[in-house]
Amino acid sequence: MSDGPAGTRAAPSSTAMPAPVALASSFDDRLAREYGRVLGRDGRARGMDVVLAPMVNTIRVPYAGRNFEAYGEDPLVNSRMVSQEIRGIQDEGLIATTKHFAANNQETERQSVNANVGEQALHEVELSGFEAAVEAGTGSIMCSYNKVNGAHSCSNDTLLTSILREQWGFRGWVMSDWSGTRATTDILRGLDQDMPGPPIGPDYFGAPLKAAIQKGSIPVTALDRSVGRILGTMRNFGLLRCASPQGPVPGCALPARPRFDATASNAVARRAAEDGAVLLRNKNDALPLTGRAARDIAVIGTPAVAPVIGGGGSSSVIPSTVTAPREEIVKRAGSGSTVSYRPGVDTIGTVIPGSALSGGAIDHTGDDALTTKTYEQTRTLTAPEDGDYLISIRSTVSNRSLTVDGRQVAEANSYRTDTLTGTSARVRLKAGKHEIGVKVKGYGADPTLQVQLTWTPPRAARADLAAAVAAARKATTAVVFVHDEQTEGKDRTTLALPHDQDALVSAVAGANRNTIVVLNTGGPVTMPWLSSVESVLQMHYPGQMGGAATARLLFGEAAPGGRLTQTFPLDDAHTIVSGMPRRFPGVDGQEEYSEGVLVGHRWYDRQQMKTLFPFGYGLSYTTFSYSGLTVTPGPEGLAVGFTITNTGERAGQEVPQIYLGPSSEVRNAQQPPRKLVGYRKVRLGPGESRHVTVTVPKRQLQYWDSTAHGWVTGTGSRDVRVGSSSRDLPLHRDVTVRR
Questions:
Q1: How many CB atoms lie within 10 A of CB 408?
Q2: What angle do CA 461, 467, 471 make, to 5 degrees?
Q3: Mean pLDDT of 462-469
Q4: Under CATH, what is the fold of the domain 2-248?
Q5: Which residues pair with 434 in a beta bridge?
């Protein structure tokens, strides 16, 4: 069994794929299936039979720490992506585990928060991706930590039995998230497997279950049912072909596992990074780089040399290779070119020396790795001057936290065994002595624990910024790489880039008018410098081939094919949860889904609120036009036809999107102003036109009636709109929908 969903986290290494949110930004069903096949092949090659992927939770809150592991904010995109990825994974014989069932949309108090979700929103938004996963044949479902409408997900009979099995007909098995089981009686409510079990987690389905069966409080038929679900799925995947009640079948051999094919996997990883990349701004056609702009470049930002291939937490993958943007840029700039590099903001720092830290430096790495499972120290830090200090605690697989003067300033989990990863905080200190606390707790199966404490003092930060500005001023083009730090276990507190990176971009743009910004972020960030730069390229967390993909896009060897699956708000004051703590992170353990079905772009449209970039948005290196809309209703839905033309001089990819307005006859249900009901990925050469017909299935014309407890068609006059984003819909036509 292997973690996911951005690759299989298996030894000795695997393919670190672009984050699922990058995959979804491609809006490409075929690519999603190929992505799944990479996970399937890699997992089988590394000896795995089950992968804990995909994750199909809705991106409801822009601050949620695991948003990069999800697909997006829209139910249709989530449903189409998850169904194709599951098919790809299971095409290769690996069992997919769709997670986290359900309404697991934040990390804050994730073990206990109660998600209060209305019946309509539950079915239309939160559960739609899981229903699609069941239809695609997912072998397993993972229930989540949180409560849903008062009951923990892994103890929730409504979710696990009434909906999952009775309504949807799920025939696989349900496993808990790690230590997500609450009681032995969860087996009566639909839970089949308690993970991880002892010695790492508590024991509910071992000795306690045996005792309950012997006592008669739990019937043995409950155990038989759960075992049958697990074994039935294993049998369907051929894993029991050599087993019998009498033992192994003599002379029988299981299907041979594939070899690890790095070349094939890397090709898909690179294509996913390119096709999911979103061009957000391209003033004066600054991209792709040509002429002198492509030969005289200042590369700025640590992600250019220390690639941000993924987010933090259990999705971390030990990559089989890594391509760094700076190296790939140097290759393409060619001989005779000038490519300089400056970190700008050193987010790694240097080990805090013993002269500034009582008891000596904290730097236990390599052969000196700690053999203990927990490392905890309180030291005295001597700050040489007043100012902002970037302090980072770096470690291998562990939970780690950092306190300064008794206040916790950073906390996160690391799941990487091959390298140190950091959790940082920017802390304002007065010159003098301060108490600093370090606590790192390793996980049970890890042989060693490696710990390092680093800093970037104010003087070093000023020097780094000055060097970056000088390099930018000297170059024809400045390419600035910036990143955020999304991770399992911790939600963001702001949409601003961490570690003074906004100041870095502003300073570089002030020194060089031809500044290109590359974003390595798991979701939206604010951009106070947007009008000062020429181009912004959202690469997300692009996986191990991200460096090559980024350089190919910058130099025009490939074209960005992605569109946003998350709305980018203007700022922290203009989000779906701004000033509404009951929505997020909740009050007294209660999280209210009071937006109902108005998730993501639907909410922004209802509020008529301006965004930084809307859902579905993305530029290309060419331009497109739309014409000739036709809408034909039928018994199975709508046939929407239109012509799309590449009006530019380069080949490109467009994602025409179809939105449906509310029903004129529905009175007893919430309806969004516009609902995404269809899309298609289209590739066109220069000047090429193509007539496209998209089928909108009947389910997309329906809403969940909380009185009838079922799907009902929204009849009457409805507005159909077609265009390139949720806010750019040039074609529209009214259609009458009949039951």
A1: 12
A2: 145
A3: 98
A4: TIM Barrel (3.20.20)
A5: 381
How confident is the prediction for the chain on average, in pLDDT?
95
Secondary-structure class of domain 622-737 per CATH: mainly beta
Reported as a single tens digit per residue, the pLDDT across 312-348 is 889 999 999 999 999 999 999 999 999 999 999 988 8
Rounded distance, CA 632 to CA 52, Å? 41
- Please state, in angstroms and as integers, the Cα–Cα distance from residue 654 to each residue in 123, 129, 617, 649, 692, following that order: 30, 24, 10, 14, 12
Residue 122: Cβ within 10 Å count: 24
Q: Is 452's pLDDT higher than 90?
A: no
For the residues of 484-545, what is the DSSP string, one character each?
Answer: ---BTTB--S-SSPSTTHHHHHHHHHHH-SSEEEEEE-SS----TTGGG-SEEEE--S--TT
Predicted local confidence at residue 225, as pLDDT: 98
What residue type is 678 in one-letter code? G
Alpha-carbon distance 433 to 381, whole Å? Answer: 6
Q: CB-based contacts of 588: which residues, under 8 Å, 6+ apart?
A: none
Q: Please, are residues 270 and 561 in contact by the beta-carbon 8 Å criterion?
A: no
Q: If you search the block for the tokens 């479902």, which residue do you land on?
A: 141
Where residue 546 falls (left for φ over 0; alpha for ψ -120 to 50; beta otherwise) is alpha
Contacts of 191 (CB under 8 A, 6+ apart): 143, 154, 155, 160, 174, 175, 176, 181, 226
Q: How far is CA 169 from CA 94, 105, 254, 440, in A?
A: 21, 25, 29, 44
| CA–CA dist 681, 518 (Å, integer) | 24
**548, two tokens:** 């090559």
The amino acid at 220: V
Q: How many CB atoms lie within 10 A of CB 453?
A: 25
pLDDT band, very low/low/confident/very high, at 367 (cuts 50, 70, 90) = low
**What is the distance between the alpha carbons of residues 54 and 99, in angstroms, rounded to a whole number?**
6
CB neighbours of residue 385 within 10 Å = 12
Q: Is the pLDDT of residue 448 over 90?
A: no
Task: Tell me what percent of the residues of the chain surpass a pLDDT of 90.
Answer: 86
Which pair of tokens denotes residue 117? 């979700």
Task: Domain 272-346+462-611: give its CATH architecture.
Answer: 3-Layer(aba) Sandwich (3.40)
Average pLDDT for 505-534: 99
Task: Show the beta-strand stretches assigned E in 301-406.
Answer: 338-342, 350-351, 363-364, 374-383, 387-395, 398-404
Average pLDDT over residues 184-194: 98
pLDDT at residue 361, as a whole number: 85
Which three-class secondary structure state does DSSP give residue 613?
Answer: strand
Its sign, for the CA torsion 465, 471, 473, 475, is: negative
Q: Which residues of 284-295 are buried (b: 16+ CB within 10 A; e: fewer)?
A: eebbbbeeebbb
- Decide if domain 350-459 falls under CATH 2.60.120.380: yes
pLDDT for the residue 429? 95
**Sequence spans of domains, the chain:** 2-248, 272-346+462-611, 350-459, 622-737
